[in-house]
């Protein structure tokens, strides 16, 4: 698990604006501890949206730390997993945590590519070197890290998750599921193969440019807010509250614009106009597909 001596150079973590990040999420630079890690993870997912806005706008700056922190720390924008994991792993390394980046597959591993990125952290409070799964960049993100152990579960603020150890060929792998409608629903499966910066670059290139990538065919924007998890697409609004029925309905473009403002998504006027135009085009494509079905 211990990072190679050149790990920090490979990921350019010394270029991180740590003070700027901590100010953005409202946390202090505390010594490594499980409590500090949990608080930082929750602050991160409550501050930054999971979204594919820049993919839809064809203006994605890339997933290197310089580009990510300019977007997240500098502007308060969000992004998707490669960006969240790049930033969060760098923050943890600068604060003194022992971290490893890993790639995973969203949905059935037999039919999906390694297009998700998570961060594995050594528990600073555990003498035995127990590992924790941090997953700040998923649509329904964990609020706090989950022990990386077979059968580990966590029920935090009403959201329940489970990890199971499986195999990806000859490589150990881990399934993360969430409790939904009375069953465990698979979210993703990550493996233990080494990950280097070019792996994230190639994964990002696939998800952001491949014509069949779902990131290019629908808006995805989610955020944990007080007492709820809000998810927007170009056609729908979904609000989940722990222990309550899920609200899921179609929305008009005008309401989508209002929701972007409510969720404090910091878009320029030009970006908002282009995004709403993209939304209109996606809705038109959906209508045409429905007619042809």
Q: Would you write up a description of this structure?
A:
- The chain has 293 residues and is of the alpha+beta class.
- It has helices at residues 7-11, 18-25, 34-47, 53-56, 65-75, 81-95, 197-209, 253-262, 269-292; strands at 50-51, 99-106, 116-122, 131-134, 146-147, 153-156, 159-168, 171-180, 183-191, 221-225, 228-232, 236-240, 247-250.
- The strands form 2 sheets. An 8-stranded antiparallel β-sheet has the order 5-4-3-2-9-8-7-6, with helices on one face.
- Helix 5 (65-75) packs across helix 6 (81-95).
- The longest helix is centred in the C-terminal third of the chain and has 24 residues, at 269-292.
- It starts with 6 loop residues before the first helix and ends with a helix.
Characterize this entry briefly.
This protein has 293 residues and is of the alpha+beta class. It contains nine helices and 13 strands.
The general outline is globular
Q: What would you say the CATH architecture of the largest domain is?
A: 2-Layer Sandwich
Element order: H for helix, E for strand: HHHEHHHEEEEEEEEHEEEEHH
Number of strands: 13
- State the distance separating the first and last CA atoms: 50 Å
Largest sheet: 8 strands, antiparallel
Q: How many structural domains in the coordinates? A: 2
Topology-level CATH name of the largest domain:
Arylamine N-acetyltransferase fold
Rg, please?
19 Å
- The average pLDDT is 94
Bin the strand percentage.
25-35%
**What CATH first level of the largest domain would be assigned?**
Alpha Beta
Spatial strand arrangement across the major sheet? 5-4-3-2-9-8-7-6
């Amino acid at each position: 698990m211990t990072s190679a001596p050149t790990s920090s150079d490979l990921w350019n973590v010394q270029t991180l604006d740590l003070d700027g990040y901590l100010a953005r999420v409202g946390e202090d630079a505390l010594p490594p501890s499980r409590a500090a890690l949990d608080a930082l993870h929750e602050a991160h997912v409550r501050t930054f949206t999971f979204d594919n806005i820049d993919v839809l706008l064809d203006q994605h700056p890339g997933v290197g730390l310089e580009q990510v922190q300019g977007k997240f720390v500098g502007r308060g924008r969000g992004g998707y997993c490669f960006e969240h994991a790049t930033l969060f792993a760098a923050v943890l390394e600068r604060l003194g945590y022992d971290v490893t980046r890993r790639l995973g597959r969203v949905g059935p591993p037999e039919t999906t590519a390694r297009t998700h990125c998570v961060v594995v952290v050594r528990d600073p409070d555990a003498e035995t070197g127990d590992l924790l799964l941090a997953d700040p960049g998923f649509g329904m993100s964990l609020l706090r890290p989950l022990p990386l152990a077979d059968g580990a579960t966590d029920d935090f603020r009403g959201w329940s998750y489970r990890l199971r150890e499986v195999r990806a060929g000859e490589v150990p792998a881990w399934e993360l599921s969430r409790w939904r409608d009375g069953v465990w629903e698979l979210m993703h499966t990550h493996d233990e193969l080494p990950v280097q910066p070019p792996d994230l670059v190639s994964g990002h290139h696939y998800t952001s440019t491949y014509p069949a990538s779902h990131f290019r065919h629908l808006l995805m924007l989610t955020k944990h807010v007080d007492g709820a998890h809000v998810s927007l697409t170009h056609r729908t609004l979904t609000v989940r509250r722990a222990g309550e029925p899920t609200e899921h309905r179609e929305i008009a473009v005008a309401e989508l614009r209002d929701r972007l403002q409510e969720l404090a998504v910091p878009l320029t006027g030009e970006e908002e106009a282009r995004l709403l135009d993209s939304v209109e085009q996606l809705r038109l494509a959906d209508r045409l597909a429905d007619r042809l079905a």
